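[Automated response] Your request has been received and processed.

Submitted sequence:
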Amino acid sequence: MRIGIDGYPLTREKTGVGHYTCELVAALRAKSPEDEFDVVMPSGGRGWWLFGLPRYCRQASLDLFHGTNFAIPLRGGCPSVLTIHDLSLLLYPETHERRLVRRARRMLPLMARRAAAVITPCEAVKREVCRVLKVQPDRVVAIPEAPRAVFRRVSASEAAPVRHRFGIEDDFILFVGTIEPRKNLLNLFRAVNELLRTTPLRPQLVVAGAEGWLTGDLRAYLDSEELKERVLFTGYLQDEDLRALYSTCRVFVYPSLYEGFGLPLLEAMACGAPVVTSNVPSIVETVGNVARLISPEDFRELAGGIASLLQDDAEREKRSAAGIEHAKRFSWEKAASETLELYRAVINRKRSRTA
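Generated structure:
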């Protein structure tokens, strides 16, 4: 087989989709060295998806193109597989910029109908794709993602230089992700403020991630509260720095309103961090009963969940050990095997129709 894989997510600092693309390509090449996996980088400006990519698919004699970033060519070329990581643009449009919401409403249903098959990261998103985009269930396959191999527990002494460089205290809680409304940081700030007001706890909140969009309310809240002195923004971090923080935080907190999978949760667990996170379907599917689950819309419940772990060393250790074992259930080798199986099924269907 000769497979083309969308390289656009690899043209900038990698976050969720970029890491997915990078890890999947590496695992596919390791799993099936007899096949070719071409990372196709966009070129030719705005006409790439309409003209350039279909032409590339034909000229390169691709058997299949995999759009890992919500997009595939709508005409010509070869059969396509489309990964839809989540439907936040359609289900939570208020958490995104309007131009992106308009594009998703126009293009995503077309892409889903055009694809020979759709991959989602979990069964919860598969159900949403079938319901919202009207895709038949037999055309959608849920293939879970996995934490990268770099994420393993490191000692406090190994992590110390990273924490010292950023000015991170011993007693800190951690959030990792792009700073944008869907991640629900405003309620996290409210929860930490509640802890500071009503308990003797004084944890530092470390927010690791790039600045995203629609963050005005977040900044305004911080400016109006004493909490500002207890919040540290690190910006985007490389994996080794993230590993150090995952390994030494008291609690990893991820109160997202909606996720397609929640990969930082497994990264944190792989490094031994006890986790407090949202009880939304996709996240529950990812973390099982290992994390402390809360309603993301109730900041007092979130504060209580954080406080209960901060105040209970035994419970933190129990959840830490369980999280390390839970994360081992997910692997990119398994994801690559299931993706290869799907590729072959799509290609064989096309060959049987043209035979």
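Summary generated for your ticket: Residues 93 and 252 are 27 Å apart (CA to CA). The chain has two domains: 2-146+331-354, 156-327.
If you did not submit this request, please reply to this message.
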